[in-house]
């Protein structure tokens, strides 16, 4: 097959995706993994648990792409129709796979700890079309399946369960190694510069000439995210060293052009940038969150190893907790209120003391939809950051819904902390 | 148009979706809103910023669906090609819309607070194809567009910006009202029973006969989510009262069959179920989180009005914070360790006292990938819940990745709290 463009389609199956009950995170994961090995995902399609719709999607995507990855529809319940459909589609018949059956038994007895006779529907999970190659699902009962290129399109099909951690294991352990063997793949390299403090239009203005100067093989994309903008350069080619060598000077030029707004030249979140700064300085931090309600703590502790620089947080949702645990003065709360510069300053000072840390960041604001007033409308937020010597503050006026206000506040707080650590070493 | 089946396709545009850099939350929102008014989303398709791929997707989805909703590709930067493409596709030419221009100016001057001459690229955002109806985007600079049915397919097309909060405003204020006017829509009603404490197979076994008894117009789906399973009944028909009347006895029967595992008969998260229980009893709660690192606090405070029953949390990531703020005994930490039944019991007692609450829940565990030992492997978690009189504990042995371990721990902690509140008043 061609070295230059191996295309994939991802088909996700399930009514829950089409009524919006479930957010599709599987496709993003699969796309990332395929991209890393140089497979370009051309299309992602979601269809419901509807026989004809699934069948048509197989036809369409098989005709357009070299690789088709299907997730979902393999569970033990009656709404899952994918396996018999695939069996018909590829002209096979269902047979019991003894290896899969042994694995299902093992999971029920040893892992789920539900010994006793397997249910008929669990045994059925060990049935596979006789025309497929079975892919071992170490984490669950539904096996993955690979169907060799056949028929008009000639695409290679993979069918995987929709449970995210099972799908992830199958992609990494089974699908990727087979694709690497099966295809001669091009190199795709992304480099991302992460900016804060300005908008897409201003950045685009700074980068107009730069963008015009890019060769065909390099592409620039703008990815706005919670008030920050990621700038991504993507280069394609056949030889990894050559692609890297071509991309590097452009990426350096890009960083130079936007240096005023540059946060990092890695595609990582602010919580990781802050964590790396703290580790390098061997310092510890803590948080004192009111309006963000633990979201900053969650972002930080979602990173493995964060205990190296993070001691904890006082989530002072009630004023009483601000007063009793963080030592905010009652007088402050009763005169200027919880959403005020003075309160967040006292929260930072209290967190540094209570948590015994080098740096702390504090948030207090009105996230909405209720709780606003004329003087302090929804979206009014005070942030403070400090160490033992110094405290700095920032006021935000946000204008979004609750969820986005919380996300924007957390991103701004982490960015404020980042700048403070750099400036005050 | 037919009363019985108005179908929609959602097309999302953007390379970021195809390399997995962004998770598509827009489609889920749009699907939910369409579903509420009885529009069935048949397909969701994601394509990159590639002219031919977008054009083909318009052709395909326009031929299959009555409504096509396109998001993304309308930003001010050069990677956004959707607007000129739509203009060609529908055979129009781009003209400056004075109303949109006035709105863009207003946003820059009054909201973004970046007065001064608008950039050429910002002015361009006010250009629209002369064949479309402009949809006012109150929250951003890129207008929405509606293209009337034309050509072979005869679908009604909407193009919306991809920024989630802008897209949401346009769907609610512009798209939905127009669809309600344009189509005679069927009624689609979902009722969801939320279970905890067992798996999909066991539930399916309990529901085999029930599922067989369902009429054509009612469908049952199983939606596993962090160790809980949602069971959703969906009914379709032309008359709202009739559909509700037909669905109700089936939904009651369903709840009765799985009553042992039933958490709630509303499609809400555990954090809302717990919040409603607390509000009804006029009680306050707090949390003491180690391994969940603020995720439980975040889930609770993401709900507007949670300050009525939630005072805050001590995120005691470091043992020092467990000891100094929560009063866990040094002796406990040094003998049985932080991940132990005794530690979480002392954390709960400390949280009740420090936060001055009626109920508290505590977590301590090893989320991975590092930090495990033979005695306490990754996935070992202790939970405790209590009030002034009593503390109960639960041990979990999880076997997932860090993110899922955190999510499973939070869900189990909230469920433990729910059961404790019900049992102990």
What would your notes on this structure say?
Two copies of one chain form a homodimer. The first copy, chain A, is of the alpha/beta class and 425 residues long. Helices cover 41% and strands 24% of the residues of chain A. The first copy, chain A, has helices spanning 15-18, 26-36, 51-64, 82-89, 98-111, 120-124, 164-182, 200-206, 208-213, 240-257, 270-281, 295-301, 319-324, 330-335, 341-354, 402-424; strands at residues 7-13, 40-47, 67-71, 94-96, 127-129, 133-135, 144-147, 156-160, 187-196, 218-225, 228-237, 262-264, 285-289, 310-316, 359-365, 380-386, 391-397. In chain A, the strands form four sheets. In chain A, strands 2-1-3-8-7-6 form a six-stranded mixed sheet, sandwiched between helices. In chain A, strands 14-13-15-16-17 form a five-stranded mixed sheet, with helices on both faces. In chain A, strand 13 (285-289), helix 12 and strand 14 (310-316) form a beta-alpha-beta unit. In chain A, helix 2 runs parallel beside helix 7 and helix 11 runs parallel beside helix 16 (402-424). The model of chain A has no long low-confidence stretch (mean pLDDT 91). At the A-B interface, helix 1, helix 2, strand 2, helix 3 and helix 7 of A face helix 1, helix 2, strand 2, helix 3 and helix 7 of B.
| Total domain count of chain A | 3
Question: What's the rounded overall pLDDT mean of chain A?
Answer: 91
Q: What's the tally of helices of chain A?
A: 16
User: How much β-strand is present in the residues of chain A?
Assistant: 15-25%
In order across it, which strands form the biggest sheet of chain A? Answer: 2-1-3-8-7-6
């Amino acid at each position: 097959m061609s070295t230059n463009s191996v295309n994939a389609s991802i088909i996700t199956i399930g009514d829950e995706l089409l009524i919006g009950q479930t957010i599709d995170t599987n496709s993003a994961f699969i796309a990332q993994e395929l991209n890393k090995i140089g497979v370009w995902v051309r299309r992602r399609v979601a269809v419901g648990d509807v026989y004809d719709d699934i069948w048509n999607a197989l036809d369409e995507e098989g005709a357009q792409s070299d690789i088709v990855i299907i997730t979902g529809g393999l569970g033990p319940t009656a709404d899952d129709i994918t396996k018999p459909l695939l069996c018909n589609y590829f002209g096979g018949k269902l047979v019991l796979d003894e290896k899969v059956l042994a694995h299902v038994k093992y999971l029920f007895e040893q892992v789920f700890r539900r010994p006793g006779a397997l249910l008929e529907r669990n045994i059925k999970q060990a049935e596979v079309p006789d025309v497929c190659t079975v892919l071992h699902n170490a984490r669950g009962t539904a096996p993955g399946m690979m169907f060799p290129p056949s028929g008009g399109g000639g695409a290679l099909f993979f069918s995987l369960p929709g449970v995210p951690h099972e799908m992830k294991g199958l992609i990494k352990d089974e699908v990727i190694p087979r694709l690497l063997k099966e295809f001669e793949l091009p190199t795709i390299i992304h480099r991302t510069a992460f900016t804060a403090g300005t908008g897409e239009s201003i950045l685009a203005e700074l980068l107009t000439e730069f963008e015009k100067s890019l060769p065909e093989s390099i592409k620039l994309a703008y990815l706005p995210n919670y008030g920050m903008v990621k700038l991504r350069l993507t280069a394609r080619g056949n030889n990894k060293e050559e692609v890297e060598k071509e991309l590097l000077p452009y990426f350096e030029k890009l960083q130079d052009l936007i240096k005023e707004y540059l946060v990092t030249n890695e595609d990582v979140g602010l919580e990781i940038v802050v964590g790396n700064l703290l580790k390098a300085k061997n310092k510890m931090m803590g948080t004192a969150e009111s309006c963000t309600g633990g979201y900053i703590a969650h972002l930080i502790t979602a990173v493995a190893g964060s205990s190296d620089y993070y001691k904890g947080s006082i989530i002072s949702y009630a004023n009483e907790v601000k007063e009793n645990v963080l030592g905010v003065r009652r007088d402050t709360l009763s005169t200027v209120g919880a959403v005020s510069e003075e309160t967040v300053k006292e929260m930072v000072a209290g967190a540094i003391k209570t948590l015994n840390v080098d740096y702390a960041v504090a948030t207090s604001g009105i996230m909405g939809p209720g709780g606003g007033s004329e003087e302090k409308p929804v979206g009014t937020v005070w942030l403070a950051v400090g160490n033992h010597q110094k405290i700095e503050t920032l006021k935000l006026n946000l204008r979004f819904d609750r969820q986005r206000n919380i996300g924007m506040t957390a991103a701004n707080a982490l960015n404020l902390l980042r700048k403070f650590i750099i400036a005050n070493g």
